[in-house]
Amino acid sequence: PLTAGIVGLPNVGKSTLFNAITKAGAEAANYPFATIDPNVGVVEVPDYRLTRLTELVSPKKTVPTTFEFTDIAGIVKGASKGEGLGNKFLANIRQVDAICHVVRCFEDDNIIHVEGKVDPISDIETINLELVLADLESVEKRYTRVSKVARTKDKEAVAELAVLDKIKPVLEAGKSARSIEFTEDEEKTVKSLFLLTTKPVLYVANVSEDQVADTENDELVNQVRKFAAEENAEVNVICARIEEEIAELEDEEKELFLEELGIEESGLDKLIRSAYNLLGLGTYFTAGVQEVRAWTFKKGMKAPQTAGIIHSDFERGFIRAETISYEDFDKYESEHAAKEAGRMRSEGKEYVVKDGDIMLFRFNV
Ligand code: GDP
């Protein structure tokens, strides 16, 4: 499954956030095949639609879908110089599909800041710089190799060189490659470089208990917002300490606690959804009396592929998918009523599944 890596300088609240994630963790009973890697935290994806479908169908069992966060260990500063733990840091980032970059926005004299003062932008730039330098090294290596071949007028090499020429100056200016727009053909070359700074990123502004109720006018958080906007990246504001405390509470207690603090929704729940969207993931549902269940798919997938997520036989023998949109299911309150109203569609092999679709797959065995 796709995973988002939690990255940040020391003492910004990464472990606190990761603890919250593992405490909130998905019930192992539902996910016997979940990884047992201690650096991976599996959480359930909160979804009000699943709650509503459960209410309507009254199944024996409800199963949410899950999402994985990876705690990225290793030393950040000087990582690109490639020694021991620094190297591990970069290797770990290379393996994740998106980056959750935790930034310290809380003032607390008791907690030492590695750079001496709380300065979120400088923190972000410290990490980004290591990633940029590592990418620059990859690009330069490739450049040397490809430019030799390009001299023989090899078409592919010439095209590849053009892409490298596009990326290199941006990295040399200290900027991430994600700010560059590539054509579909160029994308192929870019993919083959396995760059770190093309991975989608979201910033997690970690604030204190006192700041969390009103973050609109928070000076430090706004600095992060401004920086992120320039990269078209999203910002999630969170108080990692509170999340750690509420991660173990039952839903009702959790709501009361958040209400007292003046917070609408748990920051972790929001973060899970943001990371899920960042990776281009969507959810479809199956809704039977035995089980109502949410399934994760990659947006853009066609019906047979999404059927294959449940079982490869469903994909191989796919005939069609009886489909109701969530809005219709919610409105007509049952599969039967939606069908009577003509809101159940019979979709074929070319159907691109939409977020929220409720699907019943027909297949040959
Ligand atoms: P890491 O080095 O990035 O993993 O940081 P930690 O999670 O170990 O946090 C460093 C220190 O900051 C710990 O003492 C935490 O209790 C504290 N801390 C983390 N998050 C918060 C927060 O939201 N509010 C406050 N006040 N302190 C926090």
Automatic annotation (TrEMBL):
The keyword Transmembrane helix does not apply. Residues 2-258 form the OBG-type G domain. InterPro entries: ATPase_YchF/OLA1 (IPR004396), Beta-grasp_dom_sf (IPR012675), G_OBG (IPR031167), GTP-bd (IPR006073), P-loop_NTPase (IPR027417), TGS-like (IPR012676), TGS-like_dom_sf (IPR023192), YchF_C (IPR013029). Keywords: ATP-binding, Coiled coil, Magnesium, Metal-binding, Nucleotide-binding. ATP binds at N11, V12, G13, K14, S15, T16. Residues 232-259 form a coiled coil. Pfam families: MMR_HSR1, YchF-GTPase_C. The keyword Translocase does not apply. HAMAP family: YchF_OLA1_ATPase. Belongs to the TRAFAC class OBG-HflX-like GTPase superfamily. OBG GTPase family. YchF/OLA1 subfamily. ATPase that binds to both the 70S ribosome and the 50S ribosomal subunit in a nucleotide-independent manner. NCBIfam families: redox-regulated ATPase YchF (TIGR00092). This is Ribosome-binding ATPase YchF.
